[in-house]
Amino acid sequence: MEKENLILISNHKNWVEQAAKDQLAGVSRLPGVVKTVGLPDLHPGKTPVGMAVLSQGLFYPHLIGNDIGCGMSLFSTGVRRGRFKVERCVTRLNSIRELSDIPSGNPYGEECPIRDFGTIGSGNHFAEFQCLENAPDPEMAQALGLMDGQVFLLVHSGSRGYGQDILSRFYNPGGIREDSEQALAYRSEHDRALLWADRNRLAVAEKLLDYLGVDDTVVPVVQSCHNYVERRPEGWLHRKGSVSTKQGPLVIPGSRGSLTYVCMPGEDTAFSLDSVSHGAGRKWARSICKSRIDQKYDRNSIRSTKYKSHVVCHDTNLLFAEAPEAYKNVEQVIDSLLEYGLIRVVATLRPLITFKG
């Protein structure tokens, strides 16, 4: 699937469903779009997820969607693996249904309106405690602070109801002219949502550690956003489920039952619009997951993984909708990116506890 302005980055081992390819082709035909790139984790949604789109003269808020600023933040917790009592933490987390059950303030006031501040959200959002599994690039891993025996926390969340509110007011399938008052207003709120989402991930990490009583200091290791639009000299670059290669190290998780990859960008990523995958990408629609694997799990086994990690989630439907089987093989996504020279793997992280809610 390659035309002058339409590229799909994948290989023969990495499955991409036809519906996603069709959606991507539709995006490439929008007025003003000059290049569209599908990444190995491409899958269908309201708009295709796992893509980067360059347009000129106008931009499209609906390509970014309602979760403006959604991204991944990997934190070092300062907690030694030997002192991290997994069973105790699981018991403690099981006593709440969602993070909104833990009271917290908002130190940013009107700069970041409260609107669900300090919460993760539903769907594929999560907070996951992890430890180092392997370090193919030990020097870079050490430089990033990815040390053996440490506990890390990966938070995947976005702008929650704030982003939805913005999209509802600026939704326009015909796009927004770059020199219009509407464009200026959208960009102002869009940038505010980016800030909100970034601060919210930090608030989630601090709240979790404080609630578990293991530490109250977190240090960002990797921060990457994958839903936003940016102004570039050549036009407007939309990212929907794709991560910039121009902002240093990045993190690519799979499902709750797979490893997370910490990577450095390749040297030449211009052909992919300087973008790489943000995760494994869905394989199944959420509506069919439970019927396909209901007989495979009981109430306990659905809350554990092949890595003997624990999953804390009180929503049974969400447990099945986000099961590892619902996602593509992250190793195949990584292999595709490696084949195209878009990344090099620094380290892999193994899950200990995945919290959803």
Descriptive notes:
- This protein is an alpha+beta fold and 357 residues long.
- It has one domain (2-355): tRNA-splicing ligase RtcB, CATH 3.90.1860.10.
- It has 9 helices and 18 strands.
- The chain has helices at residues 18-28, 61-64, 86-93, 138-144, 160-170, 181-212, 286-293, 316-321, 330-339, and strands at residues 2-3, 6-8, 33-43, 49-55, 58-59, 71-80, 126-134, 150-157, 176-177, 219-225, 227-232, 235-240, 242-244, 250-252, 260-265, 275-277, 310-312, 343-355.
- Strands 6, 7, 8, 10, 14, 15, 17 and 18 form an 8-stranded mixed beta sheet that branches. A 6-stranded mixed beta sheet has the order 1-2-3-4-12-11, sandwiched between helices.
- Helix 5 (160-170) runs antiparallel to helix 6.
- It is globular and about 55 Å long.
- It starts with a strand and ends with a strand.
- The mean pLDDT is 94.
CATH homology superfamily:
tRNA-splicing ligase RtcB
Q: What average pLDDT do the residues reach?
A: 94
Strand content: 25-35%
Taken together, the total number of domains comes to 1
CATH topology: tRNA-splicing ligase RtcB
Q: What is the count of DSSP helices, taking H or I runs of 4+ residues?
A: 9
Radius of gyration: 20 Å
**Helix content range:** 25-40%
Largest sheet: 8 strands, mixed
Overall strand count:
18
CA-based shape: globular
CATH architecture: Alpha-Beta Complex
Distance between the termini: 38 Å
List the secondary-structure elements in sequence, H or E.
EEHEEEHEHEHEHEHEEEEEEEHEHHE
The structure class reads alpha+beta
| Weakly predicted, low-confidence segments | none
CATH class: Alpha Beta
EC number: 6.5.1.8
Binding site for GMP: 124-128, 226-227, 278-281, 356
Catalytic activity: a 3'-end 3'-phospho-ribonucleotide-RNA + a 5'-end dephospho-ribonucleoside-RNA + GTP = a ribonucleotidyl-ribonucleotide-RNA + GMP + diphosphate
Organism: Enterocloster lavalensis
